[in-house]
Structures are given as C-alpha cells and as structure tokens.
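Hi there,

I know you've been waiting on this one. I reran it after we fixed the sequence typo, so this is the corrected version. Both the input and the resulting structure follow.
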Amino acid sequence: MAEYDDYEDPGFFNSSNDSRQEHKHYLQFSKIFLPCTYVVVFVCGLLGNSLVLIISVFYQKQKNLTDVFLVNLPLADLVFVCTLPFWAYASIHEWVFGNVMCKTLLGIYTMNFYTSMLILTCITVDRFLAVVQATKTYNQQAKRMIRGKVICLLIWLISMLVSLPQVIYGNVLYLDKLICDYHDEEISTVVLTTQMTLGFFLPLLAMIVCYSVIIKTLLHARGFQKHRSLKIIFLVVAVFLLTQMPFNLVKLIRTTSWEYHAMTSFHYAITVTEAIAYLRACLNPVLYAFVGLKFRKNFWKLVKDIGCLPYLGASHQWKSSEDTSKTYSATNNVEATSMFQL
C-alpha cells in the first residue's frame, strides 16, 4: 500500500537538509492525499459495486457467461474497497489493528485485486468468443455456464495463492509509527513477476488481441450499434491503460532498480499512480454493467421497487429499453453489434 511510505526513514534521506525537507513535504502531502483518495474510492466503489451485485443477484437471470462474470467482478471489487478504510485510518494515524489483522487485510486486498483483474480478462475473452464464434457460443450456453462457474472458482483460488506472499511477509513494524507492511526484497522475483503478469500484462494482452479482432469484425458489420460498440471498446481499453499502466510501470522500476527508493520523487510517483489504479474499482460498474440495456432496465425496476421513482416513469424506461433491445436483436450480426447489451 502507498501509505507505507508515511514515515521518515533517516537511512534514505540523510544526504542533505534539502532531501529531508523534501521528504517532510511528501509526508504532509500523503497524509492528505491518501485518506481523501481512499474515502472517495471506498464510497463510490461501495455504492456502484453493491448496486451491480444486488441487481445481478436479484433482478438479472444469469443467462450467459458474461452474467456469471458480472456477479464475481463487483463482489471482488466490493471486498477490495472494504479494506480501504483501514488503510485510510493508518495513513492518518498509525496501524492499531494488530498483526493478524495486518496479514488478513494484506491478503484480502491482494487477492481481490488479482481476482478482479483476471475476471476482466475472462470478460474480454468471452466477448471475443461471442463475436468470432457467435453460433457455436449460442448453442453451447449450458456447457459454457458450467465452465464459467468453474473458471470463477479457479480464479479465486489462483488469486488466493498469489496473495500468500503478502500474508506470509506482512507484519506490523515500528518506523516512527506502527505500520502494516511487507518488504518486496523478501519476496522472490518470480513471485513479483507472476503478480505483475496476472495483474497487468495478461489483461492487457487479452484486450489487445481480443478487441483487435472484435473491432475488425464490427467494422464489417451492418448493425447501427457498430459505432457505439467501438466507442465502448476504446473507452474500456483507454480506462484500463490510464489507470493501470502508470502504477505497473512504477512497480516494474521498483523491482529492477532499488536505488529509486531513496528518491522522494519516486515516492510521489508510487503514491499517485497507486491511487489512480484504485479508480478501477469505481469505474468497473460503469464500464461493465451500466452500459448494458438489460442492466439499466433492471436498475429502473430496483428504483421503482424501493419507491424512488413513479411507476409511470419507470414503465416508460422499461418500454423504451425493451423496444430498443428488440430492434437490436433484429439486426444482422447481432452478437457483434449488441455484444455490450449484456
């Protein structure tokens, strides 16, 4: 976590008064920036992912593989954001939750981060198959549903194994104040490489390969939803790159060049890029759920059920969505042109 840098290590910053002063400025910055970021991501992520999870479980029948993934994705993001209040408190004060809680939260935080990234990869591959093998995919829905549930179980197990090093090496340390931390130098390069591969390079490769084929297919499609689908694809890839690439590049530098730990500017880079990476938990509900017509229809049902919307207004929304959905289904290349209808 970025807040681990919220202490002054005289071993790193003893070269000059300017360096110590610069690091003090960094500490003041992190005490304000980190808690604010954690609170924003926690509130937005909690509301968005809870809403997606409620609608997916109670209002939306799991008719295809993407629906299965869209239950596990908000669940992983939801558990992930629920660890942030602990880190927010620790960044302002110190770690007061004990060693067991430290190991547990480090494990939960890491496990759900990689679970979320792997599920995003599966959603990308599923959309790819829905385009290039539309007929075969439709005829094998039952088998695909079973495989999807098995894949989700494997994803959770793999993420749990990948997070074990953080649990093993995580401890409460005293460095000017109590912090919950783990040391990268105690974790093998193989483990760090595996984590970076699962957390960034694998999803990135899947997006590049799968969405390239999807875009090529859409360009030859006649459906009027082609341009909307292309915009959504570019948005998904752009958000992923903008939120995940900076932090992973910084992590890559950190694993190869330890001398950067002595640079205050590098600590700024870690803090800011990691905070940006957390935005993924807030944006996933928008990118992978709210863009779907079926999901928006069920959202209005939920709003009506809790009494926040007049019945007529809700009915109008449902009718509009149903009519539009029927129109989409009637077009050629339905899998390609309405694949984001979810």
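Quick highlight: The beta strands are 171-174, 178-181.

Best,
R. S.
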